[in-house]
Inverse folding.
């Protein structure tokens, strides 16, 4: 039990360090996409830039706007970070401290709870802009959780288990992507929408929402919300590789190849942000309810029949 607890704590620390340098990768990547350098003044090639940003944000004064409900207003960012780190319990480290048989059920429960921290951050700010941003973010998250749940269900039908370890072991000889390619495409788009990333960043539509649900946060509160968002992006990248390319974890070069795949999927989030303009909100809702949902249900029916035939 002590080893598993220490293993979980180490996973949390490594996730937070990864978040810091992923922000640097994003800023450098967006810089080169836009034909500029990005951060390159602090230290060697700008590598200590995330540490300098962290010192700046955490040393700023804690601003308490007059109209906010102060206690829940301060709790919501830390609740968001706590829930995003809870997902890393499912990470397959050496001493696996996940709920082995119900790992994906834990993922669905925790990701559903994260909606409340976003809603609370907007509601308790007592600002019309923050409330409008949080309502749009919650509607977007709840809508795309439907497609994410059904796509997860397709993987569970194929492999017959909710254990992430079992799903990865199952793919030693063949990846799920060869059966579920269209599901992978829809899963990635759903992940981008679920994490409120461009081009689906309607929670932070600067042109009409003045930064959305986090408008009243500064310093520590803003930094914690920022860390929670990027922690979710990195975990979604791990989950993409685990669900659709899982067997590579157990190849001869398992560690290097696995992390390269996770880095590539995480970089896709940056690439999408640099390539596409912001979508229209009504088209985003149309995409999930009129396009993705019927498609996922049809593919799910096909996979159910395929699993039945294979088990006959």
């Amino acid at each position: 039990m002590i080893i598993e607890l220490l293993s979980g704590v180490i996973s949390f620390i490594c996730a937070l360090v990864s978040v810091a340098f992923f922000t640097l990768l994003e800023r450098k990547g967006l810089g080169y996409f836009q034909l500029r350098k990005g951060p390159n003044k602090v230290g060697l090639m700008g590598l200590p830039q995330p540490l300098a940003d962290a010192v700046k944000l955490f040393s700023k004064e804690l601003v308490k706007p007059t109209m906010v409900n102060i206690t829940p207003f301060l709790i919501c960012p830390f609740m968001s970070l706590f829930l995003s780190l809870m997902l890393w319990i499912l990470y397959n480290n050496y001493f696996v401290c996940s709920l082995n048989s119900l790992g994906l059920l834990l993922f669905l429960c925790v990701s559903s709870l994260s909606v409340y921290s976003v809603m609370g951050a907007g509601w308790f700010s007592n600002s019309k802009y923050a409330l409008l941003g949080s309502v749009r973010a919650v509607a977007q998250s709840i809508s795309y959780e439907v497609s994410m749940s059904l796509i997860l269900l397709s993987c569970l039908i194929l492999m017959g288990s909710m254990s992430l370890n079992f799903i990865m072991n199952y793919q030693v000889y063949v990846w799920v992507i060869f059966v579920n390619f269209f599901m992978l495409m829809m899963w990635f788009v759903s992940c981008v929408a679920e994490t409120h990333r461009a081009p689906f960043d309607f929670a932070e539509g600067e042109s009409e929402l003045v930064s959305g649900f986090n408008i009243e946060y500064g310093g520590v509160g803003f930094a914690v919300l920022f860390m929670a968002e990027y922690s979710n992006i990195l975990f979604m990248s791990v989950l993409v590789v685990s669900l659709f390319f899982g067997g590579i974890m157990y190849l001869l070069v398992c560690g290097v190849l696995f992390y390269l795949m996770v880095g590539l999927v995480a970089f896709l989030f940056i690439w999408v942000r640099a390539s596409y303009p912001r979508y229209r909100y009504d088209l985003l809702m149309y995409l999930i309810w009129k396009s993705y949902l019927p498609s996922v249900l049809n593919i799910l029916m096909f996979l159910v029949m395929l699993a039945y035939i294979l088990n006959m």
Remarks:
- The CA atoms of residues 50 and 191 lie 25 Å apart.
- Confidence is low (pLDDT under 50) at residues 94-98.
- The chain is about 70% helix and 0% strand.
- The radius of gyration is 20 Å.
